[in-house]
């Protein structure tokens, strides 16, 4: 039985978050009434001409700098010619031979905790097409051109990924990055972030790549994984049956979990690329690059490194907390609020709560961290009460739930519900005495060597105090008293 | 250079042009003559010449500020459309 | 008695300012001539009488109030039907756009209308500006007022015939390979093509984007200078529009021509030039010598390759520019399409005429896989060789001169079946488009053939942005000669 190696390269399309289109001054906002945002340029009206949006170029450069890529000092827009009803001019303005962003790279974290470098071949600017709506208009298709002309950054990777999981990790990494850079909203349902996957397999040890298939328009991380896994299995099955892989474009059907051959858009794709004579060479000066560089935020990898070095977080935790810019911002806002209360040194506690209770609550309500019902300052208020031993971690969870539901400060809830921890030794002593008196048999057993019953006594004390007794103190005192 | 009928059919397909039976041989003939004519270009020594896409060599692409300047004009723009319904341009079914 | 249609724009402007006549009277006069004379010429596709009178009325009000700043205020004009005009049929001479009402004004339409110009109508033209005889128009051929059996040249044949027949004192036009200069030569007018990038292309329906440039057809160089001042200038909507100030072309007109260095292009006197035309060009050059100019022979060795270069570059660009005509958002759609493919192919097959289809196919082929390097890339390289030839010549001389067209106007139908022969009409004009140079044609005599005599044009080419110099050189000649005052018989 031959063993196979999977080879994957991704072409990610990220819609750039400009206000207006790449070559026209129409709005790019999602969800407008059909064709309300398609102006004369977007419609490809006779006589109109494209003019390049500076912001789109700025965003592309920002991405290039973030992946350590060469920015082309002179790049060219070319026309990709083909007929399709959602492509108004009969050509797409794209970049062919000289893209704005050249070779770059980034690192992904593999499941085994090691890092892998994925090469980025290039990233180029182009315009998005409109949408064909296949609802039935008496057997006709409706065309909405609002999306036509929305700026896209097409990010092309090297064929460096060796499994669907790696492809997803890479896609997520780019997703995180473009949102950090604030160049794409990353909304996959709305199609702002999508990819085509080039998949092939080859016998392990063979250097030459196998014939690849391109799976078009994948717009969720789950679909990417499923589609690639299906496609890999299909290709191996074909090859093992002695058949050849046909280079083609395939579509993923999420309902069936299968890829299927897309009847080729053009019998023979001959796009007849040539330099767009309506646009001149884009010259990017050093000053422009420097001004963009000055706007670069701390990137996720830099931030994660800071978390592990300064806060002592694990690489995994740092990765989770920096997976989105908003999550990192929230976490650091919690730390800042703790610091304002002179409670430094609680970075791990804060990390555990943000990744644990908070993330679970966000997931449950299906909201983003920016919409959290407990803001960073309030969460810090709760953590402060754990840090100063006013409440136990267990009680804190209860308080958290109330805070989430009732929109109140931790202190108000602790006060109202009387959840303050009992740390008065005398009071705890008294309770222990009562518990021992009420359970003479268990006491005798314990003293005759049944150590396991220690837990029973802890439980009884906590029950009587309603969980408010300081657990560490209860442990210490019980040990002494039970010993007699 | 002599184009065949098949060549012209392929070009017409790529350009999405329906040609009639009468037009086809006329194009086979005239396009062949045109490509013979432009073959004169082979006489020039272009080995060290950079291609020229624009007549003004020093001009570079200007970039405009990212501003929205348009309002919804679809009704006006769609007056020229052969077929519109529910503000959408209608075309024969697109099959994916 | 001098009639209104004998007056140049400059004279009409003076008359308006002196209240000798009103803009409304002017508009009525020319609309009357259009109604009477156009049917035989077929120079106009659309006449916008009502709008013209309303515009003229407004211009009169501005003139009366002393608020008309432009010298063009109140003057009538015809636009080539390649320019989009808001709310007015804009056909580009094609069945494809036979129902197309532009929803916006081209930049030059907007600028001229702001200057107070009165649009009388839209001129016939070769379909999508592809032609040299105005025989490819869906609206039928335009006749040359000098001889109705002859073509007026193309593609701006309607503009040229209209101005030559004095249906308007000026018409806009466009020039991709000679489409202003050649019709100017064939109808005895002054045709001016500015430097590429000098006049905005926004709203001018594209044929070949890297070659197209808008200009004028007028009686005189002075009139061209007047109109160009308001047409030219930077347009932020056109990325290829050049952001340099527009000089006052009128101010430079009367500079003396003593010491002017004129380059006689050797290659301009080859390539099928008729002897009678050549003689008239030599005659014109002697006029310049008398004015103190020096003649210097120069060579543009790659110029003979300009026609084949053009017939790769222009079709390549047009094949892509015309892809937007697909029957979806505007323009012609075939009846009862069977499916999407059928809709595309029949809408385009039926909507475009034979020459347009030929050029789309030529362009599709030269850009297609396997042929790009051999044709398109090579043509772009030869284009640079030709451009460099011009640049070298302009190190020695101020302007270049030669014939505009190898022959005077030819018979309608004489060349329609032979595209190569037709393409060679532009042998002297195409070079300026490839290099993006300003160029013009001025009438320099007539050749007599039987009982008709037909005009011949002298071509003047200058370096980039030398518009003022060209107009000065042409104006000097027109001060010494009367050819620009000739009016065809029956149109006096």
TrEMBL record, chain B:
What SUPFAM superfamilies does this protein map onto?
Glu-tRNAGln amidotransferase C subunit
Catalytic activity from the UniProt record = L-aspartyl-tRNA(Asn) + L-glutamine + ATP + H2O = L-asparaginyl-tRNA(Asn) + L-glutamate + ADP + phosphate + 2 H(+); L-glutamyl-tRNA(Gln) + L-glutamine + ATP + H2O = L-glutaminyl-tRNA(Gln) + L-glutamate + ADP + phosphate + H(+)
What does the record give as EC number? 6.3.5.-
Q: Which UniProt keywords apply?
A: ATP-binding, Ligase, Nucleotide-binding, Protein biosynthesis
PANTHER family in alphabetical order: GLUTAMYL-TRNA(GLN) AMIDOTRANSFERASE SUBUNIT C, MITOCHONDRIAL
Assembly and interactions? Heterotrimer of A, B and C subunits.
The job of this chain, per UniProt, is described as:
Allows the formation of correctly charged Asn-tRNA(Asn) or Gln-tRNA(Gln) through the transamidation of misacylated Asp-tRNA(Asn) or Glu-tRNA(Gln) in organisms which lack either or both of asparaginyl-tRNA or glutaminyl-tRNA synthetases. The reaction takes place in the presence of glutamine and ATP through an activated phospho-Asp-tRNA(Asn) or phospho-Glu-tRNA(Gln).
Homology family? Belongs to the GatC family.
Protein name, please? Answer: Aspartyl/glutamyl-tRNA(Asn/Gln) amidotransferase subunit C
Annotated source species:
Steroidobacter gossypii
Name of encoding gene: gatC
């Amino acid at each position: 039985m031959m063993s196979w190696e999977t080879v994957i390269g991704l072409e990610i399309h990220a819609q750039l978050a400009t206000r207006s289109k790449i070559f026209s001054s129409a709005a790019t906002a999602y969800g407008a009434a059909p064709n309300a945002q398609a102006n004369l340029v977007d419609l490809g009206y006779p006589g109109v001409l494209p003019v390049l949006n500076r912001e789109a170029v700025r965003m592309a450069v920002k991405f290039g700098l973030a992946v350590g890529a060469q920015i082309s000092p002179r790049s060219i827009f070319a026309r990709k010619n083909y007929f399709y009803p959602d492509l108004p001019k009969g050509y797409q303005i794209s970049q062919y031979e000289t893209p704005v962003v050249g070779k770059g790279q980034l690192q992904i974290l593999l499941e085994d905790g090691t890092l892998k470098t994925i090469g980025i071949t290039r990233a180029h600017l182009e315009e998005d097409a409109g949408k064909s709506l296949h609802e039935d208009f008496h057997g006709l298709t409706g065309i909405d051109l609002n999306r036509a002309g929305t700026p896209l950054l097409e990010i092309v990777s090297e064929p460096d990924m060796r499994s669907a999981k790696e492809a997803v990790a890479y896609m997520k990494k780019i997703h995180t990055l473009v949102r950090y850079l604030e160049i794409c909203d990353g909304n996959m349902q709305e199609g702002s972030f999508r990819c085509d996957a080039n998949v092939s397999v080859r016998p392990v040890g063979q250097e030459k790549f196998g014939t690849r298939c391109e799976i078009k328009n994948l717009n969720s991380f789950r679909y990417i994984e499923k589609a690639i896994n299906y496609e890999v299995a299909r290709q191996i099955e074909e090859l093992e049956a002695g058949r050849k892989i046909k280079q083609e474009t395939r579509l993923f059907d999420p309902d069936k979990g299968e890829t299927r051959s897309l009847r080729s858009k053009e019998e023979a794709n001959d796009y007849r690329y040539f330099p767009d004579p309506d646009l001149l060479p884009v010259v990017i000066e050093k000053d422009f690059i420097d001004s963009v560089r000055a706007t670069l935020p701390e990137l996720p990898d830099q931030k994660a490194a800071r978390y592990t070095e300064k806060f002592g977080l694990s690489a995994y935790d740092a990765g989770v907390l920096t997976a989105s810019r908003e999550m990192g911002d929230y976490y650091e806002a919690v730390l800042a609020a703790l610091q304002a209360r002179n409670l430094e040194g609680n970075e791990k506690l804060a990390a555990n709560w943000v990744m644990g209770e908070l993330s679970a609550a966000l997931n449950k309500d299906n909201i983003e961290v920016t919409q959290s019902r407990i803001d960073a300052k309030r969460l810090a208020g709760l953590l402060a009460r754990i840090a100063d031993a006013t409440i136990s971690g267990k009680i804190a969870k209860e308080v958290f739930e109330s805070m989430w539901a009732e929109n109140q400060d931790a202190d108000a809830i602790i006060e109202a519900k009387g959840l303050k921890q009992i740390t008065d030794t005398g009071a705890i002593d008294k309770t222990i005495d009562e518990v021992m008196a009420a359970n003479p048999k268990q006491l005798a057993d314990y003293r005759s060597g049944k150590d396991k019953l220690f837990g029973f006594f802890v439980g009884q004390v906590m029950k009587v105090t309603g969980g408010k007794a300081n657990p560490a103190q209860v442990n210490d005192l019980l040990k002494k008293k039970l010993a007699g | 250079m002599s184009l065949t009928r098949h060549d012209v059919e392929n070009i017409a397909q790529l350009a999405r042009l329906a040609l009639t039976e009468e037009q086809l041989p006329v194009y086979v003939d005239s396009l062949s003559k045109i490509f013979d004519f432009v073959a004169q270009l082979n006489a020039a020594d272009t080995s060290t010449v950079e291609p020229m896409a624009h007549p003004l060599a020093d001009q570079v692409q200007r970039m405009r500020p990212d501003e929205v300047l348009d309002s919804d004009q679809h009704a006006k723009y769609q007056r020229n459309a052969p077929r519109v319904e529910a503000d959408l341009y209608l075309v024969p079914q697109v099959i994916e | 008695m001098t009639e209104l249609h004998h007056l140049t724009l400059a004279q009409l402007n003076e008359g308006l300012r002196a209240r000798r006549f009103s803009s409304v009277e002017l508009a009525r006069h020319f609309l009357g001539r259009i109604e009477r004379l156009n049917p035989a010429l077929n120079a106009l596709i659309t006449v916008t009488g009502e709008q013209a009178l309303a515009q003229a009325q407004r211009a009169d009000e501005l003139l009366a109030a002393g608020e008309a700043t432009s010298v063009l205020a109140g003057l009538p004009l015809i636009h080539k039907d390649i320019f989009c005009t808001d709310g007015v049929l804009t056909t580009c001479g094609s069945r494809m756009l036979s129902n197309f009402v532009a929803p916006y004004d081209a930049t030059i339409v907007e600028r001229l209308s702001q200057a107070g110009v009165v649009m009388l109508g839209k001129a016939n033209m070769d379909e999508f500006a592809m032609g040299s005889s105005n025989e490819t128009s869906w609206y039928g051929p335009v006749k040359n007022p000098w001889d109705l059996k002859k073509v007026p040249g193309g593609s701006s044949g309607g503009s040229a015939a209209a101005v030559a027949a004095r249906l308007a004192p000026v018409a806009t036009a466009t020039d991709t390979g000679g489409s202003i200069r050649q019709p100017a030569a064939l109808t005895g007018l002054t045709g001016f093509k500015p430097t590429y990038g000098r006049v905005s292309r926004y709203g001018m329906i594209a044929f070949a984007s890297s070659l197209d440039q808008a200009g004028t057809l007028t009686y005189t160089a002075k009139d061209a200078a007047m109109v160009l001042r308001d047409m030219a200038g930077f347009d932020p909507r056109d990325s290829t529009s050049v952001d340099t100030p527009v000089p006052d072309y009128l101010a430079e007109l009367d500079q003396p021509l003593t010491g002017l260095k004129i380059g006689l292009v050797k290659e301009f006197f080859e390539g099928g030039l008729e002897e009678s035309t050549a003689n008239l060009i030599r005659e014109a050059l002697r006029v310049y010598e008398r004015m103190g100019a020096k003649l210097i022979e120069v060579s543009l060795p790659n110029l003979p390759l300009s026609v084949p270069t053009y017939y790769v570059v222009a079709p390549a660009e047009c094949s892509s520019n015309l892809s937007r005509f697909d029957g979806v958002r505007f323009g012609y759609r075939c009846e009862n399409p069977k499916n999407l493919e059928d809709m595309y192919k029949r809408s385009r097959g039926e909507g475009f005429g034979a020459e347009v289809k030929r050029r789309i196919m030529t362009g599709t082929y030269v850009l297609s896989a396997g042929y790009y390097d051999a044709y398109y890339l090579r043509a772009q390289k030869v284009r640079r060789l030709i451009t460099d030839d011009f640049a070298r010549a302009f190190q020695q001389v101020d302007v270049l001169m030669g014939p505009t067209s190898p022959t005077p106007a030819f018979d309608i139908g004489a060349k329609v079946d032979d595209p190569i022969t037709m393409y060679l009409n532009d042998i002297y004009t195409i070079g300026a488009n490839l290099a993006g140079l300003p160029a013009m044609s001025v009438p320099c005599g007539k050749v007599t053939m039987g009982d008709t005599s037909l005009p011949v044009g002298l071509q003047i080419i200058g370096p980039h942005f030398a518009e003022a110099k060209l107009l000065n050189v042409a104006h000097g000649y027109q001060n010494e000669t009367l050819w620009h005052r000739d009016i065809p018989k029956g149109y006096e």
